[in-house]
Amino acid sequence: xxxxxxxxxxxxxxxxxTTLWDSLANVRQFVARNLAAGADHMFxxxxxxxxxxxxxxxxLEEVTVVRTGKNYWHGxxxxxxxxxxxxxxxxxSYLLSPFDSVRWLFHIDGDESLDIDRDGLLSxxxxxxxxxxxxxxxxxxxDGPVDRFKRTATPDExxxxxxRGAIASPHLREYFHGHLRGKVGVRPTLDLRVGIHDAWTRAxxxxxxxxxxxxNVLHYDCWSSEEFLRKWASPMANRRAKLAGKRQQLQDAVNxxxxxPSIDDEERDRRLMELYETHVADDVAxxxxxxxxxxxxxxxxxxxxxxxxxxxxxxxRLLDRLVSADRGYFLSPxxxxxxxxxxxxxxxxxxxxxxxxxxxxxxxxxPATVTTTE
Length: 374
What we know:
Elements: E1 13-20, H1 24-36, E2 41-46, H2 51-58, E3 63-67, H3 70-73, H4 81-96, E4 102-107, E5 112-116, H5 118-123, E6 128-136, E7 149-150, H6 155-164, H7 172-175, E8 183-186, E9 192-194, E10 199-201, E11 206-207, E12 215-219, H8 225-232, H9 245-258, H10 265-279, H11 284-290, E13 293-294, H12 312-323, H13 339-347, H14 353-364, E14 372-373
Helix pairs in contact: 4-12, 9-10, 13-14
């Protein structure tokens, strides 16, 4: 519990869902960070075959891994990564909706970590919660762990950075290298949709999410020059979500270097590092001077996960049913395939008594009252 609190510990769980394709080393770090940061159980969808990663994840009690091959997508795999991510996130939200032991499901990427006050989150009755982004400082090399992050800057702070020459113009898109909006968590439900950065009603209205200064997501974007090369100059670059603006311009510049046949490896590396220093590396001195850097609180990263407890087997039995279901139930609401219809279909099949009772209770639960925003 947080200091000064007299509340009894809340035994409900916090889960995460992620669609990823990465190296075993990076996946190990991703899992370790999030389990220590407050996740009780992680649902990970492998976006491409990765036997070593799959074997590692399948050996962890606190992780459920799902392979997303041709059978998973029923031969209709969406080309857009964001579409695949949202389909997978919504599948897990619907999956967990019959289980009251799970209070929150957060949709995060493979280069992110929770940075949360668990007690504050578990005491909230909101249907959705916003995690504000803290982005890792980008420097060529780190002598120790990555522990300095940029908080969101005010307009005045952006202007000061611009005058210092640390950014090209006083806009957050010049300041942050990655996303600006942070990430969202929901109470698992059949009646809301989980997006990349927001929760939505099935009518397409954005749900207003509760916020707290102690609810953040750490974004380990291009925290070093090596990480920059991995993300921008490797096969991974072709599997990212669609880019826009200066990020697409940077990718075009990187591709231009990689596709120039007349230069040798040394010149190629020099040009790539020039792009990194010009467009990505942070002016750490300026950030420190203006007071924009924070260090995550150690107590938020010393958690012992509890897994899914006695619900684990039932969750996996229901997951087996959902994996074989039509993906249309998890895609855009424009498909007119409502997950309530799916649950009704499952109840008419040969479900065991426990799952049937859980699905019946989930269907009987009235939709959460939400406030929508522009």
